[in-house]
Amino acid sequence: MLKFILIAVGVVLLTIVLVKIVDKFVPLKLKPFLSILLWVLIGYLGYQTYQSIYEPIKFNKIKKKRYAQVIESLKDIRDAQLAHKTVTGKFAQGFDGLIKFVDTAQFTITQRRDTSVLDVEMTKRYQVDMFKDEVIIDTLGFVSVKDSLFKNSDRYKTMMNVPVGKPGEKFKMQAGFLEQNGLNIPVFEASVKKDVILYDLDKDLLVQENQVVSVDGVNGDALKVGSMEEVKTNGNWPKTYGDNE
Q: Which secondary structure element, helix H or strand E, spans residue 113, and what is its range?
């Protein structure tokens, strides 16, 4: 905004100065020619002023649209990874294994029941029937991971591809374990650089976007979900782009 104000003030002042110079010092017969040049210059400066306003608006509009598409893909990756952890106890290392898992794996449908059974040892000790509480897990059936997460869609087969931005780019994905309190906890992270998503937009605005620190923006130089440094599976985008947890 400050840049726009300075440019606008500069255009106005320059126009006034040029008009006065032409009126005071230029011979009458040259005034028509110089007036044309003056109008051309004013038009150029006006265009530059317009561009200084329009470029950030255009950048933000395209950015939000592309971010929304990338975030949908990151959500699919997260859903598939969480399913993988539920079934196998860990996250998938790569997309090939994750896609194969979605194609073939099943969730087990269970039902928990609380019951009481005879405690043989306590009954012998006290010569009277003693009972203890137990939890019984009944298996009711199985359901396909693919049907649960993606229903009739096969978009999971291309979830490794960054849907917008620089052609042919893929998400970077890592998985492993993080030690906390003596336990190895599964973690994963999927990410793509903003430079990839916005590669063809204004470079100065892209530099600013990579340095964003804001509650309503995507902080840092990448869009990502999960973390290899913390135990979390949420994304780094604000709620305005949808659920990030």
A: strand 106-118
Residue from 202, 201, 135, 130 nearest 166 by CA = 201
Token duo for residue 130: 């003693």
Which pLDDT tens digit goes with each residue over 179-198? 988 999 999 999 999 999 99
Long-range contacts of 140-147 (CB under 8 A, 24+ apart): 140/109, 140/110, 140/111, 141/109, 142/106, 142/107, 142/108, 142/109, 143/106, 143/107, 143/109, 144/105, 144/106, 144/107, 145/80, 145/83, 145/87, 145/101, 145/102, 145/105, 145/106, 145/107, 146/102, 146/103
Three-state DSSP state, 191: strand
Q: Which H or E element spans position 137?
A: strand 131-144
User: How is residue 87 written in tokens?
Assistant: 């079934």
pLDDT digits (tens, 9 = 90+) for 32-57: 776 677 677 667 766 666 666 778 89
- Please identify which residue in the block is written with the tokens 């620190």: 213
Q: Which residues contact 20 (CB under 8 A, 6 or more apart)?
A: none
| The dihedral formed by the CA atoms of 187, 67, 237 and 153, expressed in degrees to the nearest 10 | -50
End-to-end CA distance of the chain: 34
Instruction: Tell me: pLDDT of 104 over 60.
Output: yes
